[in-house]
Specification:
Helices cover 34% and strands 15% of the residues. With 200 residues, the chain is an alpha/beta fold. It has a single domain, classed as Thiamin diphosphate (ThDP)-binding fold, Pyr/PP domains (Rossmann fold). The chain has a six-stranded parallel β-sheet, sandwiched between helices. Helix 3 runs parallel beside helix 4.
Length: 200
């Protein structure tokens, strides 16, 4: 049975979103473990640089790029460049780690207490999946929101244990159980489709 991480990477692969820019920490380790060879990971030394590099790449590639920052502290470091990406109308999928659920009550150092509120109002959509099996669908919605004109950023928070959870087929959206996701006709299959008119 595939893991949630396996299904998530397969979805991103089908969408053509295979570039990740990040500054990883302990809560992102499971995301990076056995990282797919057909994905490109670009490591930066600070989160502001991460978002700045991803902003430029997404505009150059004319498709969304995944941004991976280190929990709430990393997102705080990145907010200046997040605002710039917002004004640029750049399609980014912004992800950040979160502490494991059994540690949240004591609010250790890396806990993001209001994880969906921190990036607002500079993202189009912000979400923290309540269940591990919700992660692929969250990425799908983030992708759809990011590329829909006017293009922009979406934020998704994932816990450090999510990558190891098994993915029961019964939890797949009905369309996925019937077969593979539809082709990207009308979505960013062509480079120009993913960028707003002002960025083409």
């Amino acid at each position: 049975m595939p893991t949630v991480k396996d299904v998530t990477f397969d979805l991103l692969r089908r969408l053509g979103v295979t570039t990740v820019v990040g500054n990883p920490g302990s809560t992102e380790e499971t995301f990076l473990k056995n990282f797919p060879a057909d994905f490109e990971y670009i490591q930066c030394l600070q989160e502001a640089s991460v978002v700045g590099v991803a902003d430029g790449l997404a505009q150059g590639l004319r498709k969304p790029v995944i941004v991976n920052v280190h929990t709430g502290a990393g997102l705080g470091n990145a907010m200046g460049c997040v605002i710039t990406a917002y004004l640029n109308k750049t399609p980014l999928i912004l992800t950040a780690g979160q502490q494991t659920r059994d540690m949240l009550l004591l609010e250790p150092l890396l806990t993001n207490i209001s994880s969906t509120l921190l990036p607002q109002p500079w993202v189009k959509w912000s979400y923290e999946p309540a269940r591990a099996q919700d992660v692929p669908a969250a990425f799908m919605r983030a992708y759809a929101a990011a590329v829909q004109p006017p293009a922009g950023r979406c934020s998704c928070r994932c816990r450090s244990t999510i990558g190891t959870r098994r993915w029961p087929r019964s939890t797949w959206p009905a369309a996925w159980r019937r077969g593979p996701p539809p082709t990207r006709r009308g979505l960013p299959n062509s480079p120009d489709a993913s960028m707003p008119p002002g960025n083409r």
